[in-house]
Structures are given as C-alpha cells and as structure tokens.
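Changelog-linked ticket: adenosine-5'-diphosphate example.
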Amino acid sequence: MTDIWTEALRGLRPLLGTETYDLWLRPLELVEAHDDRVRLRAPSQFMKEWFENHYKEAVLEQMRSRGRTPPAIDIEVAIDATAPGTTDPSPASDAPAPIPPARAPAPSGLAERYRFDTFITGASNELAASAAAAVAEEPGHRFNPLLLYGGVGLGKTHLLHAVGHAIHDNHPELRIVYLSAERFMNEFISAVRYNQFDEFRQRYREDCDVLLIDDIQFIAGRDRTMDEFFHVFNALYEAGKQIMVTADRTPSEMQGMEERLTSRLNWGLVADVKAPDLETRVAILRQKAEQDGIGIPDDVCVYLATLVRSNVRELEGALVRVSTFAALKGKPITEAFVREVLGEAAEAERRLAPITVETVQKAVAQYFSVRITDLKGPRRHKGIARPRMIAMYLSRELTGSSFPEIGLRFGGKDHSTVINACKRMAAIQEEDPELRATIAQLRAQIVGPPRP
Ligand code: ADP
Ligand code: MG
C-alpha cells in the first residue's frame, strides 16, 4: 500500500501541473511516513517555507478528501556542508576559518516594497511567481533565461525586483544588475558615443552574475541595441549566469525582434502573468490597505475589487483615491462612499457600469451566431454546448457573480453545471491555443478598449 504522503502527491499532481509539481514538491524527500506523522527533508530553508506557505494546505486537503486524518508534517532542512555558515563552529578545531565570500553591493534601482512577501499569488500569476522564486533560490540553474510576460500593471516588475532582493539576501556574493531595456539602450548609445564601450562591456558582460531587464520588448527594432544585447546574453549565458527579463508579450509576438534573440529568449521558461481573479484582487487590496494603515471593511474591499478589474495598478490607484478622500472628508470607507468617490471622475463611470452576465451572453451569442435563448436552454449538442461553457466561464471571470447566480441566469441551471463548465474551459484552454485565442478575443471585446 502506498503511504499517505505519496498518495496525496499523486492526487495533487494533475491539479498543480507538472511544472509546479516538479518545482516545489518533487524536491521534497520523504524520510518517514506514518499515519500520524510524516517526516520530510527539503533541500533548503527556502523550499521548506515555500512548501509550508503555498502547498501544505493543498496536500492536507488531498488527504482529507481521501478520508484520511492528516498527519503532522515535519520538515527538516538538508544540511549542505559546503554552504557558508552551516559548518560546525567547533572552537577546538584549529582549521582556518572559512573565508566568507565577498559581499556584492546591494543592487541599485530596486523598489524596497517589491518583494516576494508583498506579492499575492493566485491562479493568474502562480506559475510566474513560482518560477521567479525558483530563480531566486538557485540563480542560473533552473530557468535560464526566465521571461515573464503579460499586460500592463499585473506585477511583472514587482516580481523582477523581488528576485533581485531575494538573490541579494540568499546569495550576497552575487553581483546583480537591474535596469530597464530603455536604460540599457541609452547607456549603450552613450558608451559608443563617448568611447566608453570597454566600461560598458565590463559592467554587463564581466561584472555581472545576475542580469534583470525590465520591458525587453523596448529594444525590438533597434538593431544595434539588439546586437549588443545578443552578445551580453551569450557571454552571461555561457558563463552560467542568470538572466531574467519581463515583456508585454511573448518573444515571437515582438515585431522587429531578431530571430536569434527570440529563440534565445525562448530557451528557458516563458511564463505568463494574467489579470487577477476576484479573490486575488481582494487579497491584494486587503494587504495594501493593511500596509498603508487604511481602514476598509472586508465587504467594501470586495465591492471595490468588483469595480476595478483591469489590473492591479488601477486597483491600487482606486484604493489610494478612496482613502485620500475619506481622510479629507473625515468619513469612513463604506460601499456608498466608494461609489461616490469613484463616481466623481467621469472616467470612472465605465467601471461603475459593471459587466453583467447578460452582456457576456450577448457577446458570445453574436460571436458564435447562436441565439441567446439557446445559450440559456437545455440543448447539449456541441455547437451550443461549447459557446455556453465559454459564456459561463467569462461570466465568472468578468462579472464576479457567484456560481449559483450564473446558473440562474443561464435558464436556472445548477451551480455544479457552472463550476464544471468553468473548470473544463480552464483546462482545455491550457492545451488548446485556438480556444485560448477565442476567449481572449471575446474578453477584449466585452471589457472594451483599455483606458489610457
Ligand atoms: P507590470 O510591470 O506588470 O506592469 P507592476 O509590477 O508595476 O506591473 O505592478 C503594478 C502595481 O501593482 C505595483 O505596485 C505592484 O506592487 C502591484 N501588484 C501587481 N501584482 C501584485 C500582486 N500579485 N500582489 C501585490 N501587488 C501587486
Ligand atoms: Mg513593469
């Protein structure tokens, strides 16, 4: 019979996906498994904590769902004798003390608040966040290069900075260079102009162990900068140095990007960051409010999160606005107050006209040339079942309505039908780029053009 731990992992694996599983669960070594106690060994303190904070609950849930009483889980950290600070500091030994590695200066340009512990993870950014954490843990080993892409205001820069901070904390000897692609280009141009190319080359090719570049799409179409970046990339990559970049789209979608760069950017892991779902938006708001000492009741957080859906930057902006006005007027933050404040800006009107299930149904019906009554009806053949599932999925994502409510608006279907539709659409999208594109197109159409 398999032990309780292995059994739970088997159940969890398809839910997490192979990448996440291999990254965070496979490295945990099973030392002992009893029904009331499981002992594990993690390769590092970081891996141990990451498991405890992100996956432990899911493992326990697996055990419970199999009718087992979850055991206590003890995790020890493997002692790596070569790591500094872990050797036995026995005073009797007269062996020379190990020479501590030189500390590299703190990387410049990183925002203090963009750290892993202030980054909220959810389905929309899970892969990106775990890959970033893996890079921070073992730079140059697992995902090289790591490229994060996604729309504006979704946390790419935040994660890039978090990696910079964490590498500096975990590996103080590494020299970290962080900059935007635009700055890279400007420095390159002025290095050429002022005959300082040797210094430039030294800084990016020699004196650099970790290169973090934000918004790499900026250099697309700028031939000499691309050429220089190509050489920097090769020099670092061949030396096993970590490279991490962010972009607003995938490498192959960057018009004007040289083929040899596109292919290199695809060598490692390309992970997307999507717009956060309602739960994640609420969690982000709560954290932000707590961080800034803003008193906002939970239900108002939820209300605000349903109003502002486009991206996290907007969400933060709305919170700042609301709290500033509340302070000015000496009023508590209530739902009515939020409505009043956000209603003051004409620009916010659109946010206040919430997307409804009916809007979604209309758009989907039009797209597939089916009738709304059929979407709501009982017929199950594929030509209607697929659009219906898509409509349910988008209703859930875009309107923040509950499963029962969506069921009701689809002709009184059971909430489990809606849950199944959402799950299936999420799963099929993973494998089917065509469906993904269809949904993306519909989403863009329903949400409307981005605000400036
Ligand atoms: P991008 O680089 O993708 O345009 P940023 O990293 O600049 O986006 O994020 C915009 C703002 O939203 C930042 O203040 C960032 O801290 C915040 N933010 C984005 N995603 C998250 C998240 N998951 N948790 C906490 N804050 C977030
Ligand atoms: Mg950014």
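Closing comment: Example verified and attached. The first helix runs from residue 4 to 16. Residues 116-273 form a domain with the Rossmann fold fold (CATH 3.40.50.300).
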